[in-house]
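Run Pre-rRNA-processing protein TSR1 homolog through structure prediction, thanks.
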Amino acid sequence: MLLCPRLKHRWFFTSARPGDLHTVLDMAKVADTILFLLDPLEGWDSTGDYCLSCLFAQGLPTYTLAVQGVSGFPLKKQTDVRKKLSKAVEKRFPDDKLLLLDTQQEAGMLLRQLANQKQRHLAFRDRHAYLFAHAADFVPSEENNLVGTLKISGYVRGQALNVNSLLHIIGHGDFQMKQIDAPMDPFPLNPRVIKSPKDPGMAMEICATDAVADMEEDLKVLMKADPDRQESLQTEVIPDPMEGEQTWPTEEELSEANDLLKESSKVVKKVPKGTSSYQAEWILDEDGESGGEGDEYDDIEHEDFMEEESQDEGSEKEEEEECETVTIGESVRDDLYDEKVDEEAEGKMLEKYKQERLEEMFPDEVDTPRDVAARIRFQKYRGLKSFRTSPWDPKENLPQDYARIFQFQNFINTRRRIFKEIEEKEVEGAEVGWYVTLHVSEVPVSVVEHFKRGAPLIAFSLLPHEQKMSVLNMVVSRHPGNTEPVKAKEQLIFHCGFRRFRASPLFSQHTAADKHKFQRFLTADLALVVTVYAPITFPPASVMLFKQNSNGMHSLIATGHLLSVDPDRMVIKRVVLSGHPFKIFTKMAVVRYMFFNREDVLWFKPVELRTKWGRRGHIKEPLGTHGHMKCSFDGKLKSQDTVLMNLYKRVFPKWTYDPYVPEPVPWVKSEISSTVPEMDME
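Sure, done. The structure for Pre-rRNA-processing protein TSR1 homolog is below.
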């Protein structure tokens, strides 16, 4: 802690452990200013560049650039060193000045800049109260020594802190507070002068060490939690298995149903005058006996197709044999191959690269299985006349997990109301800048052990509803530094606002429509929406996606922001079945290899067909028992065209939310040798 009454400021300087990604990001969440110390030779290495990428993606607070060690070089080289550093800094910080930090005077200039520079605001923390712990004490409970009350002392920042709100300790979860104490400030900017009771003429200054000693005497309880007004820790809805159960209809409902049935069964007919309703039932419609010629024509055409099919049955079998998939055998392992390479991991990665490449070449195309009927394999799918305009009920066929989550009737209005209350309503509790001690209940002992090992302890207050689970949608773009394929439903590590958790997300297109197509891979050229079950967070909030490597390190794969909290956002998965025209007759064609039995053709007959060259058509009827079908199109097909059928179903994320993220392995730091002179800062 550095006190400077002349500049009317006090600073608390802290540094992250080298290579500790979580510590760097957590401290940047609460820091007022980040002081970047550069190496005089290189500026920063690959580790520093990776760190800067993460900080820019999360949101950078006020920062200052400084360099130590330039004065250690000869005078002739100092100018070249400064030019080289300025050129390196311009890539990341084009409009910022680089300060020297080698002399007492330069240190004073740095403090003056830290005191006078304009503070940048981070949107995700401006509406929360947050606290960086200067001290922590753990009092175990009587029943269990592993759980107890954690006393956190520090300065309140952001907003006023209410004891009835919930507290989120980064990396450890959500907790309730018992009370807030106001001990004496251990680092007062203006030390108070008190008179001795024995000798009134003798005065003494309270310094930091004396203040700590007198803390217990001056302890003052600010607020105690009110059980009636305190926020609940409930994160999920407990589903009622009997909810939605159907009961036997009442007499009124049965009579209404009968009346509707009678009305719908009435048919209006033109009959001679004086005909009774009984006689009218026996009178045929005008269209009753028509259509004979058309049926006869269809029968002849059907026989022609059957004849041609039987004649070319042998050639079909030959073509089927030619189209069989060929499996290429594995290459022989080289004896001189590096034994440190994990062959199993290499094989899995190669398979993912192949799948990603196939998805780019043939989007959503799947092979129709031959051992399972297509009507069973794709029974959850449906056809749509138009993906954009066809209706789809968002409340239809919801999974069981949707009974566990919370949903807002109008999320935007709720968010606006809560933010308005923060701005206009005065919150009772600890004001910004006060030094307080928070009594947090039911905290595991591992939290204070983590703090004693040197990790920072950072707490954020939660807004109403932010502890409850829902469906979060985030817009992300692929980070250019990572090119490995990332498949949907693969476990990733999320940094969303001040939260950190693990989950397996879905990827979908970012469009303005009511239906959004599911993406099987996180593509590099498009911004996609990531959908996942997670606690409610009110935007704006930054989002970072990491992937844990086999060596324990976390790789940044995507960055973005929180879009909405909306369980009704529909992610639609598309599968494309493909067939090949076998015989073409003007606008008619025989298509094969889309299905392999007659029943499947009849089942999917109502679904519209399309081709890669823009033709549209329908299935007329099946031919034979091997899945061949007669189809009609709006134009003549080309022999090299492919017939496609689009099928759709709605997909939901899996409940894989895990709030506890393992600590990443520290980065491999490159060795930089530099001489930094020691200096005293007053």
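Residues 292-311 form the longest helix (20 residues).
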